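Data availability (excerpt). The following record was deposited with the supplementary files.
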Amino acid sequence: MAATLHEMVREAARLHSGRTAVMFDSGSDSDSGGSSVTYEELLSSGNELTACLRKHGVVNSHILGLFCQPNINLPQWILGILQLPSAYLPLNPEASPAQTLRIVNLCNLSFCLVQCDLLQQFQANYSSSLTLEISAEWPEQNLALVRMQSMISSTTEKALLKTGCEQVQTGHKNESHSSASETTSQMRLAYVLHTSGTTGLPKIVKVPHQCIVPNIQHLRFLFQITPSDTVFLASPLTFDPSVVEMFLALSAGAQLLIVHTVIKRMPSRLARVLFNFHRTTVLQATPTLLRRFGRHVLQEVVLSPDSSLRVLALGGEVCPSPAILRSWRQEGNHTLIFNLYGTTEVSCWATYHRIPESVLTSDHTTTDSVPLGAPLDGTEVEVRDKKGCLVTEGEGQLFIGGRERVCLLDGEVTVTPGMMRASGDWVLVKDGQLYYLGRKDRLVKRHGQQVHLDTVQQVVESLAEVETCAVDLCEGSRLVAFIVPYLGTTASRNIHHRDQASEHADLRGDSVLLPMNRKIQRRLSHVLSSNCIPDTVLLVPSLPLTTHGKVAMNELKMEYERQRQNTGIQQENLTLDNLQEILAKLWKETLGLAEDVRIQPDSHFLLSGGDSLQALRFHQNINIATGTNSAGLLEVILDGSYSDIWNHITMATIFTEAGLDPQVPSKRKHEGSSSSVLPKKQIHAPPSTTAPETLVEGVLHFNSMLMGYVVRRAGEIIKLGYSDNTVCSDNLKAEQATRSKSFQVEGHKTTEDFNSNPSSTVSERTISKTRSTFTIKRGLSLRVLWSSDTGRCVDASPVLLVEHGSSHTATVFVGSHSHRMQALELTSGAVRWERVLGDRLESSAAISVCGKLVVVGCYDGQVYFLRVDSGETWWTFKTGDAVKSCPTVDYVTGLIIIGSHDGHIYALDSLAKKCMWKQNGLGGAIFSSPCLHPPLQLLYAATLHGRLLCLNSVSGVPIWTYSRDVPFFSSPQCSNSCVFIGSVDGSINGFNHKGAMLWQFATSGPVFSSPCVTSSNPRVVCGSHDGCVYCLNCTDGSLVWKFQTTGKVFSTPFVFESPRGQGTLVALASTDGTVWVLNAEDGTVCASASLSGELFSSPVVWEHMLVIGCRNDYVYCLDLNSKEDSFRL
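Predicted structure:
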């Protein structure tokens, strides 16, 4: 069996001397059929060149440069060099002279064969750096032999070579498996190439015959190459697949087809040349090169039923998914498709996989990826993890080698047989198969999560609107998808028109292309996780290629930068009018909304379907579009309304234009702020109760503590005035259920009459609901006792104070976006008092340990301490930003603990009127409410920067911290052994009190709801933006039951004992305005009500009364009774 490339050709020439060996097609109309040479002519011309080279002193062991374009004489030139014997080093005439000079110097090149047509170019490029002497010219060969000598000093040259050698030998020691080694003189080199240099300086790779010959022989067997085949030379000489293409044909007596370089850049013309004129049967190409044909040509010509193409071998890039391959084939096509994988460092291919016909014809494949397949003859592959250990299942880096499959890199002069080279490619080992994940440098961390850029690219390409695409990071972190639209779309026709009309067309500003951008991003949001969705979709007419047929990513990044500069020009012409248009456009683009969607001023980004990663994308796009980088914008996006964002960026832009430092506060500024817009509801109340800064003189009698209960969201019931002030157990909840007759419903402020519909029924998991109706089941019903108009939306959750004693009074305290704090009688809804505070109230209130003060946080940054009996101000404490966190009361120390958007947690002593301690939350505003575990003196708090903190509740000293890359809006809740919290990444999490995660339960949407913990049977109930409420086992996080509501669940469930003897119940609200009461054991519906507004407030229940705030400006009290009715609001 032949041991060298040229011996294989000589053997084929002996058997097929009269057959055509090489066909060259220039693409010229006058060159009908092209020119050709037979095997006999090829061998003769090769022998002549060998003799000429020897005559002029080119002897064994030299490396010869070859500076040429593909043409009819190319194979004979390579054959002549190999027969010396010497190795050829292809030099690309289109490469930069500096890159070529580096290669020439690193290889100590003394001679170069130059195509006569290119001799003048060669001299012009290199005569200033190299001493050039034309030793001979052979017109019949169209070649000149040029002797070269570097003008770089020998010391510098040796340093270059030594550096390269040392670098490789260092790695060589780590990768060796044998002490034996071979020198360059023992290895007969066939050719010398260099890597692309995409991850650094290009590496020189010297390839012995013994490394490449087994590759060609095995592939020739796999492809069943015969003398009747025509193999296309698709790859440039500087790309080692060209060696396989050339010698696959010439070692089998087949025909090698070469076309002019210009024709390769004309996809339609190339398709005609390959398949209409020359009936090509074997095509080896990169997927990018193949995609240049377009889906229509691929289906109708390349992979049609009557296509001449017998074998299609894809390599050099990640293989397209089976779905994409199917979209390229027309039914009835029988082309065999192979996936080839390899690296230049172990030239050429390492593995192969023939894609089964069943995969190419079935729509029900189990994988989106094509395996790398089995090793080729003489090749060994293994997968190692980051520690160098072998991986048999899971992810790791692929290593390639073999006893004789070894090349010399850079300055290496010795090599260890069997050396395994690191490929730089990450793969997944699954069920004995290898699946390509991407280059090591294409596996990036984005928003703290690993992203496979090549996998993202495959998903984008799977969209029907996409012809082909490339995905990469620009400016370090922005994920950009460069997309060529499918030829059949309006966007594709438009983009090609724009490309022809203007070299500098703004592709993002086109009225046809923008909807396509949004459509693609909307589609991607359904198939990609948030961290993988591109920040920018840039439509381009085509993907530029490198000389190796791969995507020229640098050119695409230059196009992206040009678009950015165009955006910068637009920034100079910003006005408030077009700023509003820009913000609306970015909002819709980021959320994937239709162009005609109307954005409501109070729309919340996260509640409109966004998530934290989309918020980051929105934040970046606003900064790019406006040319500003205002502090606090991200927090406003995460926690504010659309109008808040508009106000924020307007202020930032105005300050920037004025040349001032945009000191825009990060707290929300609303249309209803006290300085700009009057509250909707006009209050008629005594001045003493409406003055926001009235301070009460004197002291309260703290030694006479109020006796009773405090009822707060999440099922929290606290006993007041007893020696053991604690959060009540389920036994106490049962006790309050048995005393349902303690409060008789008196006349109410607003009584609603409802129409009965006894025939309405509710299924176990769904409710038949029309607008403004609610239906009840299983002996329970809900009807409105009263409602109170607060003047604006009520997002705060009510808190109830139930007093014991002769009066048996119960009061509802609740704040509103109208700046009002109301104290209402629980039984009637009558207003006890009402206060207008300094800004909006979203924080739920708390009752001090003495029962004499109600405490609430405000958007003006103040924490207000108001008297329970009159609403008068006892004390205010100023934080550094808005307070949306709900206060927590330590009933042991009496401290009020609260978080602020200034990023701090405060412990306040209301009696002494001072801050006892203040702790930084380690970055990020604090939206959620702190949670106490008194027995262990632990305090839990969570931040919008994704940190869950555990502090000592007495001193505020941090004990442990858990970090995540997404914000926490959910408030932590404790049981005796665990702490629970929801996350906007869609999970509900359980930790022990030492900070170890015990379990994580995944929902299908962000979790803003806070958990509610039951103690009788250890369960946690929590809602999700996927519309479900989940009941989980506290111990292991396993699902007990889940219930699908008719909206999203933002608020916190409330677990309580039924006053009508129906056992333990769960009250909750969905954002579509529905209040639900479920059986806590199995999640079945017991009752429901539909209010005429969105619900973000959490319900609280005392005996048979459920109180909740609504975005229609009202606070409602619903009566839970045992009549079975259907009501209408």
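Summary of structural features: Residues 154-175 form the longest helix (22 residues).
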